[in-house]
Amino acid sequence: xxxxxxxxxxxxxxxxxxxxxxxxxxxxxxxxxxxxxxxxxxxxxxxxxxxxxxxxxxxxxxxxxxxxxxxxxxxxxxxxxxxxxxxxxxxxxxxxxxxxxxxxxxxxxxxxxxxxxxxxxxxxxxxxxxxxxxxxxxxxxxxxxxxxxxxxxxxxxxxxxxxxxxxxxxxxxxxxxxxxxxxxxxxxxxxxxxxxxxxxxxxxxxxxxxxxxxxxxxxxxxxxxxxxxxxxxxxxxxxxxxxxxxxxxxxxxxxxxxxxxxxxxxxxxxxxxxxxxxxxxxxxxxxxxxxxxxxxxxxxxxxxxxxxxxxxxxxxxxxxxxxxxxxxxxxxxxxxxxxxxxxxxxxxxxxxxxxxxxxxxxxxxxxxxxxxxxxxxxxxxxxxxxxxxxxxxxxxxxxxxxxxxxxxxxxxxxxxxxxxxxxxxxxxxxxxxxxxxxxxxxxxxxxxxxxxxxxxxxxxxxxxxxxxxxxxxxxxxxxxxxxxx
Length: 485
Known about the structure:
CATH topology of the largest domain: Methylamine Dehydrogenase, Chain H
Family: Belongs to the WD repeat coronin family.
Keywords: Coiled coil, Repeat, WD repeat
Number of strands: 32
CATH superfamily of the largest domain: YVTN repeat-like/Quinoprotein amine dehydrogenase
Number of domains: 2
Protein name: Coronin
InterPro entries: Coronin, DUF1899, WD40/YVTN_repeat-like_dom_sf, WD40_repeat_CS, WD40_repeat_dom_sf, WD40_rpt
GO molecular function: actin filament binding
């Protein structure tokens, strides 16, 4: 009589180990915002940690260097230019000093943080984007095109901006009948997926403004959902069942009739915030108010979504920041890092794959998205698409000096904190308004000419994109009139 052993699924991520950093490496005495909005409240990149904090009479967020630890003094300067609470913050994927903030004051602001961090409160934004009539709660930078930013507000509008020129290049006003919960770009930025209060999942071409796919009732429950584009084009959603059980589902965009996989977890009320690592194809789920972080691996083999493990602690999380792969410690086999928000503390949590060898683990670290953009904004507007440019993490990653700091239109001069000079200027860390700068130093003729040429080029790209859209609509109209549709 012979016995067959059960086949164990082979995966190098079956034993991912979550480790909390020691208390001396945490950031203490931060008054994390109590705003009732389902955003992570935190954004992290290889240079800075940004956390939305409580602020009297307006909205503010704290920005500190990523190496900062210990107690934060109450007099520590913040970014505090909004007139109402800040709801979302997102770092630019192409410049680690640029951050966008969305607020209840119906505006989105773009800020440039000096290399050393803030030394005085920052109230003047580089750029203010005004196009929403109600509070703005969702921000999403384009993954590969420089200076393209998507915003969504409680007016059910999606706006796509070129922050290099300050222009609103696309506006989607008819796609959603109700409150938008979440927006995610696909890998090359050619499409977005959204989930809405009407329980529908939509795949949208933002340049043509057309809804490509719709799936009604992705999750039966009434509580907020989330959706993420995965690198292979599939979509992962989180939501609630009719019995209020939290669910995770995987969808194939070629056929949205049925999910590829559904996993039910528990009956907690906290909205599950998914964080995705395209290099390892792992998904981490952080529930607001939960004491756990669950992690899964998505593969091409059934059941497609494989539960790996969970990190559990005694204290619930108010939000969490997810560090981009460029910032992890490859020498310690760290594949992901979270910054968990407590009521008064930020606690780093490392996800590592234990290995005996001290050598660089090539299988754990495939080339990852770097900070160099694959496209310029006007190229994407004209209809081009490209995946992010990849860089190797061998030997660790060092961000190159930014080549795109001067691509924001009418960018005010910023005091240089890393130069160490005490030249006559406003207090370090604040911006000088454009008007004042122009009065003090008239713009050279060549610079003005270059600005005009760049603006003309961007406008020409917009006109080209719109003419292509008109042609498409005319063809569709002709087909309808001929009875083909």
